[in-house]
Amino acid sequence: MLFKLSIKNIKKSFKDYAIYFFTLILGVAIFYVFNALDSQTVMLDVSRSTHDLIELMNQVLSGVSIFVSFILGFLIIYASRFLMKRRKKEFGIYMTLGMSKGKISKILLMETLLIGLISLGAGLVLGIGLSQLMSVLVANMFEADMTKFTFTFSASSMIKTCFYFGIMYVLVMIFNTFSVSKCKLIDLLNAKKKSETIKLKNPILCIVVFILAVSMLSYAYYNVTVGINNLQYFSDILIQMALGALGTFLIFWSLSGLILRLVQSMKKVYLKGLNLFTLRQINSKINTTVFSMTVICLMLFLTICIFSSALSLKNSMSANLKELVPIDIEFYKPLNTSETYHMVVNDAENEDSKVSIWDTLEKYNLNIKEDLKDIVELTSYQQPDLTFAKTLGNTLTEVKKEYPFLLVDSKEEIVKLSDYNRVAQLYDNQTYTLKEDEYLILADYDSMVDLRNKALQENTVITINGKDYHPKYKECQDGFIDIATNHINEGIIVVPDSAVENLIEAKAYVLANYKADTKEGKREIEDKINSLEQDYPNMGEETLLSASSKISLYDASIGLSAMATFIGLYLGLIFLISSAAILALKELSESSDNKEKFIALRKIGVDEKMLNRALFNQIAIFFALPLILAIIHSIFGIQVCNFILETFGNEKLLLSIIMTAGFLGIIYGGYFLITYFCSKNIIKE
User: Fold this and answer.
1) pLDDT at position 529
2) How far is CA 637 from CA 145, 221, 224, 309, 345, in A?
3) Where are the alpha helices (DSSP H) in 325-343?
4) Which of 66, 95, 489, 545 is within CB 3.0–4.6 Å of 480 for a Cys-Cys bond?
């Protein structure tokens, strides 16, 4: 009997709370898909370095899954709370008919178990299907050979999914049993008759709290944008986060007392149509869900920032590879470290720094001329007294005040014009000309470009070998020497060839392309160079010589961008679904509780069109409030993320924001529409 009753209750719940079950199934599917990446990537034909990056990505995603399980657990327990509230009268009737609390608990246990099995089964089936599409996405990101594509199933992911969700459902069972044990018959039977009292808060207090909240948020916004350079410690960032969270809570607390008062003063708006009914309903909802609205707003804020930053990082790194890695390989070696290099080196390395880069290459049998073409050699120089502080000139005091921890005593890197122009031609970049008393600065790291531009605009003079040089341009020129996956050039001073006489040689570069034209041929040369390095296990201890190649940088770049993308998608989807599902469940519960109010409105002559419009406005405003504040937060939050990811560039930020808006529109908007149509069906019953 209890089992049949449980089956009947589940069928009824499916009808009333389809969103709850849909969210559970979607949560299981997403959890499985992202934990099944390890099995999906087994069939990929990738290089060893790329395979290692994929392994690292899987380990990180596995750790993120623990955090995700807490989010989903909170969502399931939160949803169960609404379902329990919805069924209080039903439990009261059971007890009236003589059913004990123990049997009611057994019914709930059976229902939870069956719901869990159904959700897990359906979610795993959906997840297995989606994981095949994810395999294609993974292969596309890592440019793997898809000719070996096969259907994949991850037993470990299924076990992990069942384990985590099993724990969640056990917690729900405990929660439901505890809730039933505390119920009183009189409260259960009268649950439908009880209406939430709308407590009109003191409007003056609400205004004061609102102003205080806006002030707190404005202060936090300022600190994370204009004053971000003053946040030197992680604790400083935590303080801004705490101010933002508290300010968000106070905003919703004050709005719950201001909205109704404000609209009541606008008689024409308040008394038009069903606005009176709609606004009082909204006020009641906000008044009783201040904490929930705060959590939802913050999750939406995190969703927007995570999505935008992850997608921007991927897009920027893909663009950077084409721009910043124009050649196949770069050999690099510090010279004369006892006079120029800040890094601590041992005696053997210090001696090696006195040996030229060509002699070092020959010493380790790296006969690069055999496999390389378009070879360009370049040497950079230093002058002991030409530091970053000297090139800042009169702006030094202002810069030190704004950036107190900036290392202004670091020595500047100097390159002669003819050397750089050869590199520029190899990179297909702009070449330059200089008069005998002119210099220019190459830089592409935005923050440093801004600082140097201030000094250049003041026509700052630098002195090399006793001769003064004036800037040819009033701003930094875009350029670089080191190949990299992001913008790291903080400044290179280019001077006429005669200016470097008697300067200390600081670094030596050999830049080149592989003679092979095919991808496989380039990989063979790369493996050959790597094998030579492996033949000398002590090479890293005896020499400062290092190499960067397009292939290795490309592998590292796509690994990092893929990791950021998948983690961003994983967390973003979970936060977004959780936020939308909580709002949807709350609205469905409210619609169910307010059926009698809509029936009463019908009896006094309100037509269905007006009722539906009132319902639509309620749900739209309830969904919009946390989203609007989250968007305001994200305007400043994205700037912080952009500052942190500055070296990777922000050329594709607008595209990332558009894609994020698309995700929000589809998922959040979809939940809103489904909630509206389900609520409309409920009030029609």
Assistant:
1) 74
2) 38, 8, 8, 10, 41
3) 337-340
4) 489
